[in-house]
Amino acid sequence: MIAVRPGSPLAGSVTVDGSKNAALPMLATAAAVRRNVQLENVPASADVQAMVALLQGTGWHVARAVGRPDTLLVMAPEHAPAVPDLTRASAIRASYYLVPALLALRGTARLPWPGGCPIGQRGMELHFKVYEAFGDHVTVQDAGYCVEASGQGSGGTVSHALPFRSRGATIAAVLRAVVADRALRLGRPNLSPEVLTVLDALRSAGWQAKVNDRLLALDPAPTLADEIPAWRVPGDKVEAGTLACAVAATGGKARIDGVHGRDLVPFRAALQRLGIPTSVRGEALLVDGSSSNASPTGRPLRAIATLSPGGLDADFEPPLMALALGRPGTHLFADSINPGRHGNLLPQLARLGADIEEISPTECRLTGPQRLTGAGVEATDIRTGSALMVAALTARGITTLGGVSQLRRGHADLPGKLLQLGADICEVAP
Hints:
Strand order of the largest sheet: 21-22-1-23
Mean pLDDT: 91
Number of helices: 14
Structural class: alpha+beta
Low-confidence stretches: none
Shape: globular
Largest sheet: 4 strands, mixed
């Protein structure tokens, strides 16, 4: 359990971990290329540790560099274990990224339904359509699903169009093309930083990839590079955004290192609309909430999560909502991508005294500024937990946050980073 009290404005500098959302598909990509890969800046979050355990349980060797705990060497297996250990596959959503690598290794991928945050139905139908486009056979059961490789040889081009820009289905299509050694033409791809990072990694290993908002083209490499590819997990943009909201909510001023400015463009636009100045210097985000809290100059915020290129990532919406509670104006929030997220977050914010009108299961609005009061709250999912920590920094009295294991699935030590910026925060026994 975490206890938080309001205190002085946050200030100083802090460095974000590698991105959980980028590390998981990059680990699956390392497995799919069937060669040794060095992966740097790997976060120690629980979901990433679960993914590493899955790789090891299904035949891959994963070694940690001596003296460099955030660097892993993923080594291709020589043969598949007779009985793969997939016991942790149902604990994380990203287990579905391993299907292509398992098809290459075993010809069959039999997995339980993925788990992850309970934020609404997020089916795998688009993934199954991708595999069927490659000629694979998919069967579905109550306990999980099975994908059997088509047995077709390499060569030829697979063309497929997604009905909407799913990140998971885009990565599934790319990795399936890699293990099949076939060209891919994918319509309506997702262009999130996590997808672009996977494509950059494949380019460094010899694949040819071009992408725009209409088409992703991937072609097999004529010859693969001999050296071991070294891929770096980008800094966690969502952790950076959460820390920035915490700094702004307390009227502080801080530098957040280790994140690409291009990954924060829609988020920075939201802060700007709230009257909070930001700037990017190299791989650092500078946030100045000191003057904006004294004399707010912002406008009402419309935080609409979208999969469109250049749109606001849904994971930014919860901390922005916590920040907006203290900002003047009537603010609108919408997340149709994760239809159960508001059902988790809004009741917990209400425990702190937040007055939020639920327009629909995926839309809500609030008018600020509001005065919050410390209470006992629960991190029912990763982003609910991080948003509650932002809100707790301005609530009168002590807020206790349970469900810390959920928070640590996505952040190895978010409380520690807030503490480094001067937050009055500690871990207590339940």
